[in-house]
From TrEMBL:
The keyword Oxidoreductase is annotated on this UniProt entry: no
Domain (Phage capsid-like C-terminal) ranges: 124-394
Upper taxonomic lineage: Bacteria, Pseudomonadati, Pseudomonadota, Alphaproteobacteria, Sphingomonadales
Gene3D superfamilies named in the record: hypothetical protein PF0899 domain (3.30.2320.10), Major capsid protein gp5 (3.30.2400.10)
One matching Pfam family: Phage_capsid
Annotated protein name in UniProt: HK97 family phage major capsid protein
Native source species: Novosphingobium chloroacetimidivorans
Subcellular location(s) per record: Virion
Principal place of residence: virion
Amino acid sequence: MTTETKTAPELAAEAKALFDAKIDEVKGIATDLQGRMAKGEDLTKSAKELADQAITGMNEAKARVDELEQKLARRGSDDGALEVKSYGAQLAESEQLKGYIDRGAQGSMRIELKAITSASGSAGGLIVSQRDPGITDMPKRPDVILRDLVTVVPTTSASIDFAKQTVRTNAAAPVAEGNTKPYSNYGWSRVSTPVRTLAHLAKLTRQAMDDAPQLQGEIDSEMRYGLALAEDAQILLGDGTGENLLGMMPQATPYALPTGATTPTTSIDKLRAGVLQATLALYSPTAFVLNPIDWYNIELTKDAANGYIFANPLQMAGPILWGRPVAATVSMAAGSWLTGDFKRAATLYDRMTVEVLISSENADDFEKNLFTMRAEERLAMAVKRPAALVKGTF
């Protein structure tokens, strides 16, 4: 078995055995010197040589133990893991050894070395586990952005009522003096949109919170993120049934190529035609909403010389098309797109911003040492100008 594959107790035992052997050698040298001195021999030179041998032997032993100690450190013990000094350090710093050498290695010597193994024979204080205080979470979507596209206002009501213009017949024209003026026709209808609640719950144990205080903050963050995902999907795709919001895609105007416009041949062309459609409806589109796959395909568009149209791959380029930002989100189905004047088209009403509460008084939580976390928000969605939004497919 090599040193690299030995366990910590085996390495410690080997170190102790090595020093025991060297101490026995020193004792043997001292006993020999005492016997020869008793016979009247001149030992000045011999004592020096033997002392040099003893020091050399101890230095070799210390180097060996230092090597073992380094190998042991590489096995996972940190800088402060050693509860007692190693055998090499204890022996090198021993006053008994220094005095013994100063006396010419004459007489006997006894050195007490503290054990570096525990009573059970394990590595004891040599190996201490290291705790990383961080918590590794799963990846989060970086594209929860649709709230930023629309107008957001607070409300204190349980429903939103607004007047929506439904008729505009403009009869304005030049009129000769004395003739009857033409009447224009305008009409509005009352629309009501209810405030809906987005919410979810999570359980966590009292023990988990006590052992990892930051866990509560992590769960808080996860629950807020979960609400943001649900909100993102509702703003874009909510169908208005049950407790769902009525989102933008269900109310947007279907794409129809304006009369006289050149037929688009690429995805980029079709998006430009969508901008034209909204522009002819008297709105100014502010962005595009695409699936990341569709935006990827557009970014890879090349010219006849096989060069990228949008950017140099070695440089960072913002997601912009036809001078308008591109919001690439997986909430949008691949192959579909949306453009329009989002600020004018839709309004998001915040009745209650995200709230995260924690309680031990839910169901049998108290008996089971559990906590229940609840995250919720209340909001309403109103698409007031559907013509300002144009949707289509590639």
